[in-house]
Amino acid sequence: EVVMTQSPATLSVSPGERATLSCRASQSVTSNLAWYQQKPGQAPRLLIYAASTRATGIPARFSGSGSGTEFTLTISSLQSEDFAFYYCQQYNNWPLTFGGGTKVEIK
Amino acid sequence: QVQLVQSGPEVKKPGASVKVSCQASGYRFTGHGISWVRQAPGQGLEWMGWINTYDGNTNFAQKFQGRVTMTTDTSTSTVYMELRRLSSDDTAVYYCARDISAIVQDVFDMWGQGTLVTVSS
Question: Between chains, do B62 and A49 touch, taking CB under 8 Å as contact?
Answer without folding.
Answer: no
